[in-house]
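Question (not urgent): is this output format expected?
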Amino acid sequence: MLRLYTFGGLRIEREGQPLQLSTQKARDLLAYLITFRDRSHPRPVLAGTLWPDLPEGKARRRLSDTLWRVRRTLGDLVMAGEERVWLNTKVPHWLDVEEFEIKRQEARSGEQVTDSCILPLASCVQLYLGPFLDGLYHDWVLLERERLQGLYLETLRRLLEYDEKTGDYAEALSAAQQLVAAEPLHEAGHRELMRLYHLLGWDAEAVAQYQCCREILRDEMGVDPAPEAEALYRTLSRPAALPADALAVYLPMPAHRPTHDLDDLPLVGRDAERSALLGLLEAATSGQGGIALLEGEPGIGKSRLAREPVAGARWRNVDAVLPGIGEYTASFYALLVAALMPALPPPARASIDPLDESRSPTGRSSFSPRLPLPSQTFHLSQIYPQPRPASGCSRLLSRSSWAWPTSRPFCGYWKISSGLTPRPSPFSHCCCFLV
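Got this back:
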């Protein structure tokens, strides 16, 4: 049996073997007959449509030659009389666009999507492999392509509505992703994706989806997302404070709320500091690096806050490295050595050697004058009253995050607790970022 595929481009198969038409005009003729398969066509109309720049007599001779080529490949599927040409639907064949229309009719059981509609609607999605007759740009193709794409988008919207009502957010997410892929300017589809990411507990992906939507709308149309999308983005990105006139957005609770790991508790009460550190990370990815210093008493939350820029770096597609060193070390710069060594190519590692004080006869690093001073310092005060722990000697708790000028930016992250010689220090505990 002949199988004709039109979604994603014209393809022909017989018994699983592909068939090729010898000329582009032969493909155009078959595409026209498939598009308007419900009628026969006068030869002068076909000749004028396919060869508009030729005289009528010459165009009709070209048509006769093209018809011969098509019939040699497809047989009686294409019929030609003295004056008219048509697609012979009585010859056994399978056509994807016909199957698409049949399945859609099966799914039309009222406005509400029921269980009986799901299989036909899912079949429509599977059949739609891409735009109708993709690669052809005649006016008569574009109109039918737009109509069928609209039917496809409506099918996805019905599936999305059903999956959301039944609580199958993973399937709903798949439908929303296909909706946005088929129509990138469909802003409501982007908003649905943001909500579904939130329902699945993936707020970072939801924020990234908003940024993708904003970039597409600005590039293609020169506009920003609607206030609904902007309000949803502000809610998900957890700003320090919303404006008084901010548009309220309904966000249902995530479907799954796992028990918190005591080693990975949620960040509480540090929105301003988190936003500032993420701003430094953004600057670092564009080549504007520096140092940020977090200071505060033990248990104040420096370590938890330090993980936020690292998480932000990962969904910005910035590589992360997680080095560490022993608890006790005589070198003040061993932390930097441990962080930079695994991230740099071998030729660049030689420049890091001066950081290791243990290799210096004097026990001091010749690299220290080149280290920049902190460009920003954040003092963390307690949110809730708690007993102040006793401290014997000065201990340094460090974490670092930076962007290095390589082919791809990366972000480093580590933790040490170093026993240092007691000395006067303005901060008993601090947390250092290189960005």
